Automatic annotation (TrEMBL):
Name of one Pfam family that matches: YqfD
InterPro entries on file: YqfD (IPR010690)
Keyword Membrane in record: yes
Transmembrane segments: 6-23, 90-111
Protein encoded by which gene: yqfD
Keywords: Membrane, Transmembrane, Transmembrane helix
Protein name, entry field: Sporulation protein YqfD
Length: 409
């Protein structure tokens, strides 16, 4: 809306009074003929107000005659009107010309840089690589390297990036990247390792693919205990280190406790709000306020950024940032004891779910609750799962034992 208003101001427009019994028909015919209208408002049974560009105003005479609608200009607005009105004020005209020239000169430089496509990569690393390629705030666009040169420099100074390109959109440089798709990890079977317990558990079943089982079903293990050993010992030969492989199915128990209220809190806006604006002029910020003071104890923050541009992708380096603080207040709604326990159970389940290993199956759960005071309850949730707890842990060969000295008799 902001940029659209700027565009309409740039072209110039008129605000019209309409009078007639067929205003809707007048508006529909204008739309069909490509005459853009906005700000449409009915002020009476046969009266209304619309806005249209100065160029379109010259084309509505046949439409007004056809629909028997009287049209009268209420107000003329926009830059062309101002230029015509103040055409004899040379100082203003010179200042306006200087402003246009200033914007034209400053638009030959880069004033903002965006990174697109860095979903898992570090944007700071990409920005640093782009700076090495010459893409930085304030650089003259004519001094930039070729697209291929910038691409090569960015790729050579980043990791996990397979493609990059720098697009120049007015005063904005957009660094678009595509991240590398890493191949799945390959198990190095030449690396000796044990299979150890990822957490405390009670063994249910061990399946050995390589190595030697160190536990039996029914054994209790602690996190880090060896389940499948990668060290094989023989009676008449030295030990051998292998890459132990297999699965360990075990019972695990998870317990979480929390305190919860017997009411539900909701935050609602009061209708009061305060907005602060900052004007961005190329690489400088001009605060349009004296002091950014938040007048509310409880609030939500809404940030909005708008940029002035010519056309779709030609940014002029001028923008307006707004920060709105909306006052909020908290309302408490009482809930039943049973509802509070159920909400607590869901929350504790979510906490436990974050600790589980992939493929965990729930076996049982037990919930315990108690009332602490008139507003608070304490809930404890215990859940039993069957999990695959085996994880590989690299091992190295122990140092050889010193040879015993033989004595001569």
């Amino acid at each position: 809306m902001f940029l659209n208003n700027i565009f309409q101001f740039w072209k110039g427009y008129v605000i019209l009074y309409l009078n007639g019994f067929y205003m809707e028909r007048f508006i529909n015919i204008c739309m069909r003929r490509g005459i853009r209208l906005w700000g449409i408002a009915r002020t009476g049974k046969t009266n209304g107000i619309v806005c249209m560009s100065i160029g379109d105003f010259r084309n509505i005479r046949p439409v007004a005659y056809k629909t028997k609608t009287a049209v009268r200009i209420k107000k003329k607005c926009g830059l062309p009107i101002l230029l015509h009105r103040y055409r004899r004020r040379y100082v203003l005209a010179a200042g306006l010309a200087a402003l246009v020239a200033f914007i034209a000169v400053m638009s030959q430089f880069i004033w903002s840089i965006d990174v697109v496509g860095a979903d898992h990569s570090d944007p700071a690393q990409i920005m640093a690589a782009a700076e090495k390629a010459g893409v930085r705030i304030g650089v003259f666009k004519g001094a930039l390297k070729s697209g291929q040169e910038m691409k090569d420099i960015i790729l050579n100074n980043t990791t996990d990036i397979s493609w990059a390109w720098v697009y120049i959109k007015g005063t904005k440089a957009v660094v678009e990247v595509k991240e590398s798709i890493l191949p799945p990890a390959v198990v190095d079977k030449s690396q000796p390792c044990d299979v150890v317990a990822a957490r405390d558990a009670l063994i249910r079943k061990v399946t050995v693919k390589n190595g030697k089982s160190a536990v039996q079903p029914g054994d209790a293990v602690l996190a880090g205990d060896v389940i499948i050993a990668g060290t094989l010992e023989f009676e008449n030969s030295p030990y051998k280190l292998v890459h132990a492989m297999g699965t360990a199915e075990a019972s695990t128990w998870h317990e979480k406790t929390g305190e919860y209220k017997l009411y539900y809190e909701t935050r609602v806006p009061t209708g009061n709000q305060k907005t602060y604006h900052t004007l961005r002029l190329f690489s400088k910020n001009v605060h349009l306020f004296f002091k950014n003071r938040i007048p509310y104890a409880e609030y939500d923050t809404i940030e909005n950024s708008r940029e002035l541009q010519m056309g779709k992708d030609r940014f002029l380096g001028i923008g307006l940032d707004s920060v709105t603080y909306k006052e909020m207040e908290t309302h408490r709604e009482p809930i039943s004891y049973e509802t509070a326990v159920e909400l607590a159970r869901r929350d504790l389940e979510e906490q436990i779910a974050k600790e589980l290993l992939p493929g965990a199956d729930k076996v049982a759960e037990h919930i315990k609750d108690e009332k602490i005071d008139d507003e608070t309850i304490r809930v404890t949730l215990t859940m039993e799962f069957v999990e695959q707890i085996g994880v590989e842990n690299p091992i190295t060969a122990p140092p050889p034992e010193p040879e015993k000295e033989q004595t001569m008799e």
